[in-house]
Amino acid sequence: MDKLLIEGGAPLSGSVRVSGAKNAALPLMAAAILADGPLTLTNIPRLGDLRTMGRLLGHMGGRVGLYPEEAGGYREEAVLDMSGLARPEAPHDLVKTMRASALVLGPLLARHGQARVSLPGGCAIGVRPIDLHLRALAAMGAEFDLSGGDIMARAPRGGLAGADIRFETVTVTGTENVMMAAVLAKGRTIIRNAAREPEVSDTARALVAMGAKIGGIDGDELSIEGVDVLRSASHAVMPDRIEAGTLLAAVAMAGGKATIRGARLNDLAVVLGKFTEAGVLLRAQNGDLTVESEPGALSAVNVSTSPYPGFPTDMQAQFLAMMATARGASIITETIFENRFMHVAELRRLGADVTLEGRTAVVKGVGRLSGAPMTASDLRASACLILAALAATGSSEVSRVYHLDRGYDRLDLKLAGLGARISRVKDD
Ligand code: UD1
């Protein structure tokens, strides 16, 4: 297992490119199950979670070409041919490391009429059930049984049928799962209160390129007319808005001036607004974003997470770290997940002053944090601890960075490229 050694206090400078989005690449890889030929995805980030999804598709009998090697490196690409799928199942050892494995359920039911998917267990950041996915698929005619911890799913004899579905809670992967089931179902499906996250739209656009008929993309009501077959297509994965926000927070906290290339600024509107409110200087030019900040010059800003276009829960931990060093007190409210403040205990070890009351954190900025050893508990928490260490005086260690590698494309190397003093060592 690797850990990161970080020497804080170095300002950041230079430029860095944002990779493809994890949360778009995952449903897009699952969408390959729907096609009668290969799906080619470009701008694929190098992530542990995508390797897991690749293994899962391979386990089912698909031909998976992930990160093909070429002279001097590899291509950021996945070519996925699931036309020879033999085993429509997602076993526990793969699902347990990645809840997003549940994204294969809708495509398997739509294309193969059956699926066996291990029930995702509890997760560090909350209960995270998939009951809403199952209820929506049941409305389309699917039947479910539970056996040995697996969901045994079956579509009716004539295939899934379109349905009028309203999600009582906005669910990102739930919307994607049902959308992918609906594109090959008989008749029309309406998804009301659909998630509007840009990653849902990116998946929808790839499905349209494959021949799907989806109306209302980018809105909260999707209208899907089932078709008989989806064909090969090629799609470039959208840039990762959470990675972009994390890099932004790194520069804001460590201080300095750097350019973040390749982010889609529209996807980040609310996040950028909060950074500006906190006193971070942002300048957009030709699609690049230049960020400038002085350590100690940030001021407190309140944030409450909500579904897109609101402030993303996946940026909460990083923003909280930033507020730990700002002037004044901020209130950070987490409305999406019930247990997403595990980074707080670790941040306190660096001297952060944070009080938790249910879903709210009151963060009193302390100016300078001081380095300490820390343990990452989940993906975004890992990023939060790294940011705190960059801004702290002295040395820090962040262990269990496999969480980080699941969802960030070599964040440590990108930060080192900006001048951060960060290195990776084996943790025995
Ligand atoms: C996705 C993202 C994750 C992000 C989250 C919220 C992927 C691969 N992951 O996760 O990074 O943090 O959206 O933006 O895209 N819920 C239920 N029942 C369900 C489904 C969800 O109660 O069947 C609840 C969840 O517990 C949570 C809320 O709904 O409280 C939203 O979760 P959801 O949007 O489904 O998150 P994910 O799709 O798992």
How is the topology of this model organized?
Elements: E1 2-7, E2 12-17, H1 22-31, E3 39-42, H2 48-59, E4 63-66, E5 69-70, E6 73-74, E7 77-81, E8 89-90, H3 92-95, H4 105-112, E9 114-118, H5 131-139, E10 143-147, E11 150-154, E12 164-166, H6 172-182, E13 188-192, H7 198-209, E14 213-215, E15 221-225, E16 233-236, H8 241-254, E17 256-261, H9 269-277, E18 281-285, E19 288-293, E20 303-304, H10 316-323, E21 329-333, H11 342-348, E22 353-357, E23 360-364, E24 373-375, H12 379-391, E25 395-399, H13 402-407, H14 411-417, E26 421-426
Parallel strand pairs: 2-17, 3-16, 8-9, 12-13, 20-21, 24-25
Antiparallel strand pairs: 1-25, 1-26, 3-7, 4-7, 5-6, 9-11, 10-11, 13-15, 14-15, 17-19, 18-19, 21-23, 22-23
Helix pairs in contact: 1-2, 1-7, 4-6, 5-6, 6-7, 8-12, 10-12, 11-12
This protein binds uridine-diphosphate-N-acetylglucosamine.
Uridine-diphosphate-N-acetylglucosamine binds next to helix 1, helix 5 and helix 6.
